[in-house]
Amino acid sequence: MARLVAKAVSKTYGATKALRRGDLEVEAGEVHVLIGSNGSGKSTLCKIVAGSVRPDSGELLLDGKPVTINDPQEAKTYGIGIFYQELSLAAHRTVAENILLSNLPGGVFVDRKQLVATASRYIALFDGVTGEGFSAGATVEALRPDQRQLVEIMKALSTEAPILIFDEPTSALDRAQVDRFFDILRRLKAEGRSIVFISHRMDEIFALGDRVTVIRDGETVATKRIDETDAAEVIRLMVGGESAGMETAARAPAANKAAAQTVLSVGNLSGVGFHNVSFDLAAGEILGLGGLHGQGQSAVLRALFGASPPSSGSVSLKGEPLDANSPRATIKRGVAYVSGDRRRDGVIAGRPILENVTPIHALKQRLALAAPSSLRDRAKPALEALRTKFAGFGHPISSLSGGNQQKIVIARWLIDRPDVLLLDDPTKGIDLSAKTDLFQLIRKLAAEGMAIVLYSSEDAELLGNADRILVFNGGGVTRELTGADRTAFNLYQAAYEAA
Predict the structure, then answer these.
(1) Which parts of the sequence belong to the ABC transporter domain (predicted)?
(2) Which of 167, 275, 350, 394 has a Cα at 20 to 30 A from 263?
(3) CA 290 to chain CA mean position, Å
């Protein structure tokens, strides 16, 4: 008998059907992977199981018995714990307080000694991979994104729930952190726990899962045993049989790359998190930044954009010095930056889509006033190039799925084409279909002569799209992979050998 069953669960928000028919069966001692495009309904299904969303119809069963879960607290009494994709931490509280936030020892008068002792048990599970500055007494606001994600994972583990749901828990983690987390999940599975795991990373799905359920357009379309399927079949199920554009074979550099004009030149650049980074970037080239997460790749891109100015070194754009002292200055010189952290660096929360897609155009053109119809006309080609799905320019950005929000962020830079496009893990947390659209456009932009720097935490994205790859380790470039050397083996070797 399945421990958890969801039958024909549905949820509608106004005119939007978030979930048409969600079906899921999870056994005891199983890691059950849930996969689907952004907006397909997988997160909605998990929130229904966890009590944070009330379904419109359908049935939930625990150990064969129908249940109604009205809120997260009730879900907890039924033995259900969840890690939410959007972190729910208290920034000014300590790591220990956040881990045990729903069950502080002592209640109103917190037993601090017991708090630290209990939280330390979960911190110890990740001993050696949490990074500098991570401790029970550290405040969450002082932590890096990967460390905050670890706190959220520890928070879910601390529930000791028989059923644990993890909604994209590895998006900000490096490989060592992911490996440790997977070891923990395998131990929990061996203890008989039931684990629902959402991920967009195909390697994680096949490394960890026992079965996979695919949701497409709000409906469960199939459940397969992991050892009886492959990545190609899963992708076909996700996109309805159309898998074109998902090839990950290494991109062959164009024959004229060597003769192309150097657009961006970086010499011995150093700053917080990186040192002595040098490279030249040609027109029409896609330069990949590889290596383990947090080895300086993002810091270099933010420095080039002026968000975190470098402490030393030189940068020139089209032969002229680039003073990267502020984003405003670099934008005016033709530099664009897209972050994978769309909430921090991308979307303008609470504002309509038109305002989210046109601010860079307004800055570049020095527009004090502009007719909305004129702005819509300028924005449409960029949005269409990315195959962005939205109901209207007046709708709030929050009405879109994560993948379409990211397309809005990218489109804002393409209304007035930049000379250099800096991509800082731009596909983090978006679905495979959105990734396909994005990389098709990136290759097209490069073919038209745009110079592109791409950092990705997914090796397949670098191998499939970059002309060459600079592998980072400890804040510096340890190896450059070109031509036939651009292989997964060489990339892994270069990333791990000095780690």
Answers:
(1) 4-242, 258-499
(2) 275
(3) 16
- Where b means 16+ CB within 10 Å and e means fewer, 179-213 reads ebbbeebeebbeeebbbbbbbbbbebbbebbbbbb
Q: What domain range includes position 444?
A: 257-496
Query: Could you please report the per-residue DSSP string of 435-464?
Result: HHHHHHHHHHHHHTT-EEEEE-S-HHHHHH
Would you say 176 and 129 are in contact if contact means Cβ atoms under 8 Å apart?
Answer: yes
SS3 state of residue 376: helix
Q: Which two tokens stand for residue 469?
A: 């790859």
- What CA dihedral angle connects 406, 407, 412 and 416, to 10 degrees? 140
Q: What CATH number has the domain bearing residue 174? A: 3.40.50.300
Residue 447 in tokens: 């073919």
Within a domain: 245: no
Query: Which residues have a Cβ under 8 Å from the Cβ of 17 and sit 6 or more positions away?
Result: 10, 11, 218
Does one domain contain both 8 and 50?
A: yes
Residue 186, in any domain of the structure: yes
For residue 372, which of 364, 382, 361 has the smallest C-alpha distance? 361
CA-to-CA distance for 401 and 391, rounded, in angstroms?
A: 12
Is 224 in the same domain as 340?
A: no
Q: What is the pLDDT of residue 499?
A: 40
- What is the spatial distance between Cα 311 and Cα 308, in angstroms, rounded to a whole number? 9
477 secondary structure, DSSP code: E
Q: Which two tokens stand for residue 59?
A: 């049935």
Nearest to 457 by CA among 175, 180, 145, 209: 175
Residue-level pLDDT at 257? 53
Backbone angles phi, psi at 355, to 5 degrees: -70, -30
DSSP annotation string for 266-318:
EEEEEETTEEEEEEEEETT-EEEEESSTTSSHHHHHHHHHTSS--SEEEEEET
Q: Which residues of the chain have pLDDT under 50?
A: 242-250, 252, 254-255, 498-499
The verdict on 328 and 385 lying in the same domain is: yes
Concatenated DSSP letters of 86-107:
S----TTSBHHHHHTGGG-TTT
Q: 293 and 441 share a domain?
A: yes
Contacts with 492 (C-beta within 8 Å, 6 or more apart), sequence order? 459
Residue 145's pLDDT is 86
Same-domain check for residues 122 and 266 = no
Whether residue 197 is contained in a domain is answered as yes
Question: Torsions phi, psi of 411, nearest 5?
Answer: -60, -30
- CA dist., res. 339 & res. 345, Å (int): 6
CB-based contacts of 172: which residues, under 8 Å, 6+ apart? Answer: 145, 146, 148, 149, 293, 428
The tokens describing 278, both together, are 């040098």
| pLDDT recorded at residue 343 | 65
Q: How many domains does the chain have?
A: 2
Instruction: Specify whether 73 is located in the same domain as 132.
Output: yes
Whether 344 and 220 map to the same domain: the answer is no
